[in-house]
Design brief:
DNA binding; C4-dicarboxylate transport transcriptional regulatory protein DctR; Arc Repressor Mutant, subunit A; Rossmann fold; elongated; alpha/beta; Tscrpt_reg_LuxR_C; 2 domains; 5 strands; 5-stranded parallel sheet; transcription; 9 helices; WH-like_DNA-bd_sf
Length: 199
């Protein structure tokens, strides 16, 4: 289940938001400071980060910068006061998902959190697909990879056979193995899979 990670040093706001989100069936974990969240943060965390921009000691933007430096990809929604809008706009330029002014409109916040979770889910699917493709490519032998490159270049089997100095029947066998390992049925599908995976 995707988590919402809520970081706000205002007890009343944190309690109200976490209660509202849980009532919507969402899983929420709370921290009362940026430092506390940073201490618990793990790269494998999945979900959405809801982050107060202005806190004691370390600010929300400082935490965001530190997390990004660690490779964090969690979509981040900043909670801002009116005077913090320029900071929030800069955070958007730096890769934040969105910002919402306090006092938060529950419906708006919920909608943006759901959109952020959808984006995170899609990113995760793409990452899993890319890793799966890398595993498939790693399983190819050197000769299979050479044949695959010939296929992607649009060369006929007999041309690939001549260039690699092997029998055309051998090219056909390697071609079949490449298609099987990558789960495709044609040269066009092969090109599409590789384009999606490396795009």
């Amino acid at each position: 289940m995707k988590q919402i990670y809520l970081v706000d040093d205002d007890d009343a706001i944190r309690d109200a938001l976490s209660w509202m989100l849980r009532c919507q069936g969402l899983a929420v974990r709370c921290w009362d400071s940026a430092e506390a969240f940073l201490a618990d943060y793990r790269l494998e965390m999945r979900g959405c980060l809801v982050l107060d921009i202005r806190m004691q000691a370390m600010s929300g933007t400082e935490l965001f910068d530190r997390l990004r430096a660690q490779g964090c990809r969690l979509p981040t929604i900043f909670l801002t006061g009116h005077g913090d809008v320029p900071l929030a706009v800069q955070a958007l330029k730096d890769g934040a998902f969105d910002f919402i002014e306090k006092p938060c409109d529950d419906t708006q916040l919920l909608e943006r959190i759901r959109q952020a979770l959808e984006r995170e889910g899609e990113r995760q699917r793409q990452e899993e697909s890319r890793l799966s493709l890398e595993e498939c490519l790693a399983s190819l032998t050197g000769r299979e990879r050479e044949v695959m490159e010939g296929i992607l270049a649009g060369k006929l089997n007999k041309v690939i056979a001549a260039e690699l100095n092997i029998a055309m029947r051998t090219v056909e066998v390697h071609r079949a193995r490449v298609f099987e390992k990558l789960g495709v049925r044609s040269a066009v599908e092969l090109a599409q899979v590789l384009a999606r995976g490396t795009g």
